[in-house]
Structure formats: structure tokens, C-alpha cells
Response regulator receiver domain-containing protein (Maribacter stanieri), 129 residues
Amino acid sequence: MMIKILIIEDDEITNFITKTNLEKLGYKNIAVALNGQEGLDYLKNNTCPDLILLDINMPILDGWDFLEATTRLNLGVKIPVVIITSSIRFEDRSNAELYSNVIDYMEKPINFEELNNLLANLKTKKIES
């Protein structure tokens, strides 16, 4: 079962590290968007991913605005989202809980063992459904 992952992150070094580590874990179907607007465009023009890794602080359209836009446009609102951020603000963590599709909140640097466990659970749920 192939899991399709969309990374929405403006930092290209973080994208390289994330994509490389996910590929080492066996995940090959990975797309990258450099801001929330590119993420929305991706959702409009491609088959929906199984998981979105979403940064909060980005130019053009940040993570919160991306989540609001997906809700407003009813675009991929059932896609599980993991927020990946350098923000340690309590407000960000509690704001994430307002979105039913946000399944986890991870602070950078990403713990790839934890992320791999989450992806394995997602893969199991996908096979069962």
C-alpha cells in the first residue's frame, strides 16, 4: 500500500531532510509545496494525499490560513494533517486542536521514528477501510 505524502514547508533544507528521511523509511510518493497557496493548488490539481505535513509559519499563505482555506473550500478536509513547526507557543498547539483533521503536532527537528509510527498506523487504517 503506497502512502502519498504532501509536505507544505517553505524551508528547502527542511524539505530535503524530511523527504530524504521519509524515502529511507520506504515512502516514495512525496510531493512538496513551498507555502500554503502551493499546497491548495496541489490539492485542486492532484489526487489527494494520504497525509499532509504542514508548517505553520510560511510566506504567502501560512499553515493556519491553509487550514482555514481547505475548510472554506471543502478541499481535502478529511486528509490527516501533522503540523511540523519550530513554534513552541502554547496558542499554536491549542489552535491546532480546533481542526479535526490535525492528528499530531510535532516540533522541529522532526522525530522520524515517531513520524514513521504515525505513518504505519495510517497505512493500517487505510488497508482496513
About this structure: Residues 4-128 form a domain with the Rossmann fold fold (CATH 3.40.50.2300). The first strand starts at residue 4 and ends at 8. The chain has a mean pLDDT of 93. Residues 112-128 form the longest helix (17 residues).
